[in-house]
Fold these 2 entries.
Entry 1:
Amino acid sequence: YMDSQVMPREQLGVCAEGNLHSVYLMFNAEDGVESQLRPCVANVAQYIYELSDQYADSAFNGFVAIGANYWDSLYPLSRPAQLKPFPAMNADNRDAPAHEYDLFIHLRCDRYDILHLVANEVCQMFEGLVELVDEERGFQFMDARDLTGFVDGTENPKGRHRQEVALVGDEDAIFRSGSYVHVQKYAHNLSKWNRLPQKKQEDIIGRTKIDNIEYASQDKPLTSHIKRVNLKDSQGRSMEILRQSMPYGSMKEQGLMFISLCRNSEHFEKMLHSMIHGDGAGNHDHLMHFTQALTGSAFFAPSLDFMQNAAA
Ligand code: HEM
């Protein structure tokens, strides 16, 4: 008991390393089911936690996250300090719309069949309490590249630093080991992107394409993606997030399921603002000319212990 007070168990999918496959399940809750949903959410999270052991060979992992607009209904007694609706923004043609869901189940594995099996099981556990409103399946493309052809995730925090970046600490004790989650489904305009010469693509990302080498600082255009998202706080420390994005889709619609995990909600919002609105001198993120955010949702992925205590 003392141990779980001191160090609540995080959901293992929050900081997990990359996988080959993913399933994203977005649910809305039926009205008035909260007292049944609380234990159900805790059971699903516990089930996912146990499967990480059972299917360790295929690196199974996942997490359950609760939508910003649904949080107070499910857990009326306490709310994560920085949990708020998705920060929708727009400037010219650059749109980051909000589209909220009550529940998000994030499942990943190196075996697609296991993922499908678990997704079915999770839906059955929730039956009668929630409605499945959206589903996407993600996949690893080439050597962990986005569909633009650029390696995605290189500058992600590594090792134990992933936990430091992604998990709430003592600043919000009840929610320790939880994580703020932001999800945006981006649809790429690949025919437009693929008409760009490679050097122009590289200038937009700020790294080389094939070899994935970072541009020298003085060569990074102010409109490049990595320039726009590489931000410092007032004390000069770099603002970090943990990205768990993966490519998704089919010939009709494809792009990046962008997923940010962080111990605060501020870093994501500042980065998105810098991409869409730019630096105040007219420099926005030119990657946005080639992709469009279709959704934007904010969640919190609590620790296992929080969900179990709240269900008791
Ligand atoms: C870096 C792609 C959206 C935050 C990168 C890199 C690529 C990339 C290729 C360079 C390699 C790496 O370090 O991972 C994309 C695509 C996006 C997208 C295709 C959407 C279509 C976003 C959004 C945010 C974001 C919405 C945050 C609001 C970052 C950060 C880095 C990064 C923090 C690391 C920057 C550094 O320190 O060098 N992204 N990204 N990205 N991206 Fe994105």
Note: The longest helix spans residues 34-54.
Entry 2:
Amino acid sequence: LNQRPISVWRYKEFLPVRIEPVTLQEGGTPLYHLKKIGEELGLPNLYAKHEGMNPSGSFKDRGMTLGVSMAKQLGKNIVACASTGNTSASMAVYAAKAGMPSVVLLPAGHVALGKVAQALMHGAKVISIRGNFDRALEMVHELCVSHGIYLLNSINPYRLEGQKTIGFEAVDQLGCVPDRIVLPVGNAGNISAVYKGLCEWRDVGFIDTLPMMTAIQAEGAMPVVNAIKGNLPEVVVEQNPETVASAIRIGAPVNAEKALRAIRETKGTAESVTDAEILAMQRDLARYEGIGVEPASAASVAGIRKLAEQGMLDPSEKIVCVVTGHLLKDPETVIKQCAPPIEIDPTIEALLSVL
Ligand code: F0G
């Protein structure tokens, strides 16, 4: 294994694809030591796995290289998904690579600009629904069942097969199993995927412990957190999810059952963060660590800040926060937070006067 470059396909024996895969060299993302934020929180072993460094700028590429390859293997001609943005961008990219038409359903007015731009430019048929993501998912599901279109949301188990490689890479890059893996949770596919992969590695004897799976949600969309904290057998759907982290603005996570199992069986936890806490961490990652992520991604590290402040973490823990998407996905939220550039006359005097 060590002779292969670190990427999704390094782990091909753990993946179900039996044809030449549709790939753009996804995975192999950097694992950064969060030195300054770790110091602030008294956590010297705090890391971020920057999934924004994938070809389309999010972790979804790991699932889509699998999903679109499987679509090909199964002889499917058209792919579709509902999305808060990243899934659609990634699906459009891999469908383009495969030469397959793709259909995308988005919640109107709630998808970050960069993501819509990607889906459009890569040639997906992009449709905005006057409803939220949960409704868009119901609709695309119905469309796919009735018209034989291949559904590429994370209900599709092959998506999760690809995404489980995040956990493999984290272990390989760290050189050991982290004590905790922290993920922002929306539809709850990614946390379930990472858990599944590491269970497989435990079962074949590659590793002998599992990390505490830790879910972070936005306060305005936290059905998984409520189920964990309330010790409920299943999540209670939220009708009107709302958060600045549009990627995780989801009230009815389709993989909730798997996620609850992942958290409970690893003695992990779930916590919520406010929009203000998310945006503060997005800025801190950018300014102190040089890591540019979109708001949903900052939620994982914001959650660790909150858990650390509550005294819930052992300072010796090796913690890997998955930061899921790139800063450039959502420029509008950034521009709203930062002071605009200073415009001046084109003279040195004017320049010096503002510096
Ligand atoms: N972070 C980002 C940047 C995302 O785009 C998503 C999900 C998540 C975290 C949560 O992952 O759903 O597996 O729990 N985005 C989906 C989409 C819903 O349509 O792009 P999850």
Note: The CA atoms of residues 40 and 284 lie 11 Å apart.
